[in-house]
């Protein structure tokens, strides 16, 4: 079982001590040949060529096997761009937040001159973490013996802060290419219709969920199939035939009611996901089926992941 944690956090404009040590690139998890072989066997147990109507879901090992998770961390999370935060978290000079992606600790920060930076949040001397949580700092200094930080590629796209741990290029400002690299052909569509950077960032909440990360993704990708059954309060407030989105800026009652409702749905989903994870670990379960009329996005997600892990 893996723990899915929505957590983020921070930054430094001072890397002077960094020059005291060599500049390594500690970006990847290491996977032995035997572990990779076991993970590859599990990847091959899903057949993305089978049409949705008769496809079976990936085997439970995709959600429970530690070697498979290591392969995912290496192939999915530590390659290419990852959204790690919102630009409002580093809105002002000296703002920072910290976070963890797989086994990588990182800091995002905005320097006094307004430039955004990202660093591995681990000291290159004896591995002390340099910062935690979020807040304001003018420089990051190891609390142990005062060594510095290893930089990571960072960019913004719309309201998102993104990092890329496997990029050693020296190009500095990559904001103009990150959309295409991250989203491919969807970046134009989303920037035209789906991304509103004028929306205010109200708050950030973190939840630790005892399930594999895909269980939570699957929960969002069942086309609303579970909403009437699992989210009674939410379902009673939705009229999907006339569903529309309104933006009510500055309406504090609306904001606090939305946060309260969202919290309820979140806790209901956590209970569902943790129940699914326990079921996936049962020897009585191996693969499931899709509901073709609603779970096409979930099937698409599994096919994309299969393609990624098969390369
Ligand atoms: S562990 Fe950071 S300076 Fe020694």
TrEMBL record:
Xref: InterPro entries: Rieske_2Fe-2S (IPR017941), Rieske_2Fe-2S_sf (IPR036922), Ring_hydroxy_dOase_asu_C_dom (IPR015879), Rng_hydr_dOase-A (IPR001663)
Its EC number(s): 1.14.15.7
Domain of life the protein comes from: Eukaryota
Catalytic activity: choline + 2 reduced [2Fe-2S]-[ferredoxin] + O2 + 2 H(+) = betaine aldehyde hydrate + 2 oxidized [2Fe-2S]-[ferredoxin] + H2O
Listed PROSITE patterns: RIESKE (PS51296)
This protein's GO CC annotations: chloroplast stroma
Pathway: Amine and polyamine biosynthesis; betaine biosynthesis via choline pathway; betaine aldehyde from choline (monooxygenase route): step 1/1
Record's keyword terms, sorted: 2Fe-2S, Iron, Iron-sulfur, Metal-binding, Oxidoreductase, Transit peptide
UniProt cofactor(s): Fe cation; [2Fe-2S] cluster
Domain Rieske: start-end pairs: 81-145
Enzyme class: oxidoreductase
Family from the record: Belongs to the choline monooxygenase family.
Function: Catalyzes the first step of the osmoprotectant glycine betaine synthesis.
PANTHER family given in the database record: CHOLINE MONOOXYGENASE, CHLOROPLASTIC
This protein's name: Choline monooxygenase, chloroplastic
Organism, as annotated: Eleusine coracana subsp. coracana
Name of the coding gene: ga14493
């Amino acid at each position: 079982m893996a723990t899915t944690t929505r957590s983020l956090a921070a930054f430094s404009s001072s890397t002077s001590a960094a020059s005291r040590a060599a500049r390594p690139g500690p970006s990847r998890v290491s996977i032995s040949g035997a572990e990779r072989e076991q993970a590859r066997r599990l990847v091959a147990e899903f057949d993305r060529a089978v049409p949705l109507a008769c496809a079976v879901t990936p085997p439970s090992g995709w959600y429970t096997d530690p070697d498979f998770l290591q392969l995912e961390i290496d192939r999915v999370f530590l390659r290419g761009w990852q959204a790690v935060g919102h630009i409002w978290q580093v809105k002002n000079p000296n703002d920072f937040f910290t976070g963890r992606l797989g086994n990588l600790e990182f800091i995002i920060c905005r320097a006094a001159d307004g430039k955004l930076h990202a660093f591995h949040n681990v000291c290159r001397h004896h591995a002390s973490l340099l910062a935690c949580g979020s807040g304001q700092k003018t420089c990051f200094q190891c609390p142990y013996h005062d060594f510095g930080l290893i930089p990571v590629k960072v960019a913004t796209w719309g309201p998102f802060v993104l990092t890329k741990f496997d990029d050693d290029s020296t190009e500095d400002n990559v904001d103009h290419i990150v959309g295409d690299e991250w989203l491919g052909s969807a970046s134009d569509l989303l920037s035209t219709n789906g991304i509103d950077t004028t929306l205010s960032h109200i708050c950030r909440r973190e939840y630790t969920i005892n399930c594999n990360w895909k269980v939570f993704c699957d929960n969002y990708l069942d086309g609303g199939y579970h909403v009437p059954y699992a989210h009674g309060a939410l379902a009673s407030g939705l009229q999907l035939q006339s569903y529309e989105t309104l933006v009510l800026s500055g309406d504090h009652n609306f904001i606090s009611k939305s946060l309260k409702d969202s919290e309820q749905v979140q806790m209901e989903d956590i209970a569902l996901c943790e129940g699914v994870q326990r079921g996936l670990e049962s020897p009585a379960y191996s693969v499931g089926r899709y509901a073709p009329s609603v779970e096409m996005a979930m099937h698409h997600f599994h096919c994309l992941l299969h393609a990624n892990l098969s390369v």
